[in-house]
Amino acid sequence: MAVPEVSREEQLNLESLTWGDLTWVNIEGPTERETEYLAQNYPFHHLDLDDCLSRIQRPKIDEYGAPKNYLFLVLHFPVFSKEAWVTTPSQVSVFIGENYLITLHKGELKPLVKLFRECQIDEESRQEYLGQGSGYLLYRIVDRLVDYCLPILNKIGDNIESVEDSVFSSGIHNAVRGISILRRDIISLRRIIWPMRAVIGSLEPKVRHFTKMDMSVYFGDMVDHMDKIWDGLDEYKEIIEGLNDTHDSLATNRTNEVVRMLTIIASILLPLTVVASIYGMNIPLPFQNSNYSLIFVLFIWLAIVGGMLYFFRRHHWI
Amino acid sequence: MAVPEVSREEQLNLESLTWGDLTWVNIEGPTERETEYLAQNYPFHHLDLDDCLSRIQRPKIDEYGAPKNYLFLVLHFPVFSKEAWVTTPSQVSVFIGENYLITLHKGELKPLVKLFRECQIDEESRQEYLGQGSGYLLYRIVDRLVDYCLPILNKIGDNIESVEDSVFSSGIHNAVRGISILRRDIISLRRIIWPMRAVIGSLEPKVRHFTKMDMSVYFGDMVDHMDKIWDGLDEYKEIIEGLNDTHDSLATNRTNEVVRMLTIIASILLPLTVVASIYGMNIPLPFQNSNYSLIFVLFIWLAIVGGMLYFFRRHHWI
Amino acid sequence: MAVPEVSREEQLNLESLTWGDLTWVNIEGPTERETEYLAQNYPFHHLDLDDCLSRIQRPKIDEYGAPKNYLFLVLHFPVFSKEAWVTTPSQVSVFIGENYLITLHKGELKPLVKLFRECQIDEESRQEYLGQGSGYLLYRIVDRLVDYCLPILNKIGDNIESVEDSVFSSGIHNAVRGISILRRDIISLRRIIWPMRAVIGSLEPKVRHFTKMDMSVYFGDMVDHMDKIWDGLDEYKEIIEGLNDTHDSLATNRTNEVVRMLTIIASILLPLTVVASIYGMNIPLPFQNSNYSLIFVLFIWLAIVGGMLYFFRRHHWI
Amino acid sequence: MAVPEVSREEQLNLESLTWGDLTWVNIEGPTERETEYLAQNYPFHHLDLDDCLSRIQRPKIDEYGAPKNYLFLVLHFPVFSKEAWVTTPSQVSVFIGENYLITLHKGELKPLVKLFRECQIDEESRQEYLGQGSGYLLYRIVDRLVDYCLPILNKIGDNIESVEDSVFSSGIHNAVRGISILRRDIISLRRIIWPMRAVIGSLEPKVRHFTKMDMSVYFGDMVDHMDKIWDGLDEYKEIIEGLNDTHDSLATNRTNEVVRMLTIIASILLPLTVVASIYGMNIPLPFQNSNYSLIFVLFIWLAIVGGMLYFFRRHHWI
Amino acid sequence: MAVPEVSREEQLNLESLTWGDLTWVNIEGPTERETEYLAQNYPFHHLDLDDCLSRIQRPKIDEYGAPKNYLFLVLHFPVFSKEAWVTTPSQVSVFIGENYLITLHKGELKPLVKLFRECQIDEESRQEYLGQGSGYLLYRIVDRLVDYCLPILNKIGDNIESVEDSVFSSGIHNAVRGISILRRDIISLRRIIWPMRAVIGSLEPKVRHFTKMDMSVYFGDMVDHMDKIWDGLDEYKEIIEGLNDTHDSLATNRTNEVVRMLTIIASILLPLTVVASIYGMNIPLPFQNSNYSLIFVLFIWLAIVGGMLYFFRRHHWI
To answer: What ipTM is given for this predicted complex?
Structure first.
């Protein structure tokens, strides 16, 4: 369990920090070479090391008692990938022991990358984060990543409001696409947050081992934040389903209005055509040669149009 | 834990009341200055003080045993904001100790503001509310705020009834908007009440510490009211979903009627046009010059119209 | 805890019956005067007496041990109000002690009113109902009221069947209204029965105190009936939701048929009009003056109509 | 608890079988006379005997310890009634004691009737079924009845497949009716099976008393079959709901196609009519008397038709 | 419990492998002859042997303590049958004892067949799989079969994406079919995976008996994979339901557009026809013989068309 030397670290795509007796090893983009290195230097189970590279993990905590005495965490946090326009889970694997904390991730989670940089550069923050045991460091890392979910949630909330506006305005086609994308986003986020809640909820008693102070309040606070995020997603899910229903109702109403307009126009104009056709026939017709015949025809037309309008008014169509 | 002096309180946007050994400190619109003041005078955890200012809280109870010996509550109550036409949660943070009760809120919850004013002005009510320990005072405050939710619930009930009327009347467009707004309102309220139920349900055993008498009946009553509100919201949710379905069914039926009308009109008038067009052709036609040709044509028309009407009657269209 | 005198009872809108050492006090339409009277004569908690008058109760059991030694029940049973065409809960508050049982209600629940009259008039039934302790009397009252729910359930079942018939017949508009009303009725009933199930399910061990014999079988039977009612409501809820879907599917199909009819008619008649219009033009036309021109035109028409019919037949439209 | 005499049995619509010390009494179509007879000969609770005749039962197990020492079961099994085209529950009430098993039913459940006949005629099967105690006999009866549900389930599966075919074929109206009937059938079956699962799941420990051998494997097998039936019903429910959605989507698409066809036809023919009408006017027109006027008109027509077709092609309508 | 001889095995459609004291018997396509053979050589319960042949099983674990001391597993894994285009469960029955493991299946599950072949041919893998006790062998077999589900899941994910594309493109009919088939597939898979999760989740403590090392980490990993598959199916279910809604919304919008187009065309052309018909009447008309009459008529037309276009523009129809 020796502190890894600087030279080898660079070869291995691996960086480390030390404060007192605590070392934080950060591995961005782990490959088999890094996990082999870990296998040689730490007492980790080979299944755990496989999980760090696997793509089909679920968030979980694996606890190993003495003599191994370490905790293996798989955590997932949402990352919005702009190319595919979807939210996907990004995995952070964490090994935590008495005097070390090892994080393996792809470097997609900015708060984690930033936190490590901060500790590299600034001695004060290194003391703040690493000075109180590996459990406290874990809390600070996870807390940052959890808080990182809130802007994602707020962005969804904003998108919902803009979709809601477009549902009630006339540009329909856009709204369907917007609802569909948002819905899928919310489904994905829920799938990421749901198992994370269970993991974070059960974290505190297992980490207690590695902390110098009572941290139940801190972890309780983190669980509250996680629950808040879940509540928000739940609410958004219901709202977006409601919006979908509202859109469909409005679309049905709009079709109704259009058809009503068509019926009104056809009902008024078709009788006129019929009357005109009658006088267009090449057969002997009454009043045909009278000078008042046009007035007579117009009178019939007005009677028909008036009757139709009265009929539609009574049926509340216009 | 000294009783705060009056002069400093005014500077700090903070008011206090004392009866016997119990002090009620009320902070409307807390800022960092107020929480700093609390941090100096009371043994509160700094995370709790942060929570008082944070906007992303969930209702919760944090219990601190001796020597700190206080309870920290975050409570949310619905407030209807008229500008945005939505129901939003308004937070009340409460610290309760042996001989003090501190409430922090934004002043949006009228019953709480009113209760404090009442105690300021009227000595009798001060005795009534503060004379039986901090636990009893908490009960009175929370009970008032819970009862304050009932008019909101009743208003939703009234709105549902008016929307129901508009669904069955002909003004369709309005109904969709009404249903959509009500649905969103109910979703928001449910999100506020749901976590509150859990908090209020677990309040009694934790407050027992701070009350001079057995208050289980009182708190039980409050839990019943909360459950009643939840039941009501649940019922309203189902009703509004049912109304949405009913609206859609009615809209489909209306479109059906309109299209049916169009079809009937077209089916009757188009054949007439065809017959008239035939006699409008500039070619030799039978009976063309007969004086009875018009009667002949009219007879054909009547036959077609009669046949169409019979056909539609048989298909139950008219 | 003296037996109330007859004279005062009449003033107080309160009647009582005694058999052995058991007194049944029945209060129809309780007001503050009656609850004050109870407060003076019995050791009841003032919150319970408030609950008897309150309109926002939930079914519940409050248990008070020695020295008060009584049970307070709030029970809700459905009553169908003919004016508003809705099912509403009617409250019965019951205080039960060693030698008394007090019922407070509005007189809307006929079985309870009838049962009391029966005991007033007929000594035998008084012995039957009151002769075995207050717990047994409670069982008889509640059992009657529970059984009273079954005809309501059956009526809903009948209504569902008649609505189902109207869904498959052609009178559409009626069906939507019927489905909507039934759905709301079922929602209301479920809201009444749901909390009642919990109360009645937990009644037996709490009443055991006040019964002379083992009544677990009797109460078990009552719980079964309650569960049966709940099962029925659950089934009806699913059926009515299914009926709503069926109605919508049928309405969509009907619109489809109507539009198809319109399309067929327009497709056949519009080409005819076009052909006729051609020969109606005031320009030199081929075959115009031939005697066979009409036959030529009719032949073109038949070809068009035949082609259209063949096309629609191939697309399974007719 | 004497074995009933043969003569009285026949009067009473009651048959019995005996093997060793075990008697199986089978009552088809029980009336009050039969239950009175049972009341006189067996130590049964009068509520249980009432339940045998009642129509509003739920499946349940009532256990009576010594000295009564019997078990009362109410079991429901689905029976498909051909007249009403619905699946209804058929009740079997069973009393089981140390040396007797009494079944009361309406004779609708063929496997039970057949099993009894088998034991009456064939001594070998009498030994097989009755030779190992009343608990084993109960297992054999219930197992037969449970297995009897599987063909019903399979029939529903077949019906779903034929409805699925008709959804994707063009005969729409039929499919709605089929979906509606199947849905209702599945709802009814679920209501029957759901409470039965609980009863059968809790049967084994209660029957243990009356069996000579360890039967946990047998009862476990029966519970598995029951769960399998429930799983099947659950799957069918989801499939039928999916089919309903599919039907609606297809119907919407079909309406869309029909309206598109109408629009295309109207868009092509109406301009033609307009052009023809122009040349039908009795006013001076250009080219009116030219011999090429028809060709000129036809050219305009072709231009309009071509433009329309190009427009629809670009919008992917044809 | 003798090791079966090779000669008899071949007659019996049964193959076996031995390494150390552990024998793996593999039966592809079991019939009554094979189960009879097992009944003679092993202490298996006859119900378990029946279950191996039965088609109506559910995944389960049956545990038999000493002296029988074996475990009977029924496992189901999804197999996609290309003929029927559906995913169906394929059963693997496993008997596991101290020194034997017997698998019975239909040979449809390729990974199992392949694994057995591997062990037959290659001594090294025989040592790897069979060298650590029957429990470890079971783990290796089940783990392979569980991992085999992942490609099926991924294929569904791919299909969902292609269906999603087709929903947003114009080929509507295809999308409905695709959604319907995918939905059914997901329902079937969920029905297979759901009971398997429970079985695999409870496997570890029961198998502990038959393993030489602590395998909780291995089985925990397998449970994680199973949960991951379930999560994926859950997500797919929600996505496909959302896609169905999206399709319906888009189809409604498309119908709306088509009807709008029809209404616009009819509204513009019908007035033209009417005006033309007027001047086609065989009665005295104003301006009839003027040379400017055509210009007059065209002017009226343009006014009507302009008015209509302005009206539709204002209603956001075009």
So the answer is: 0.81
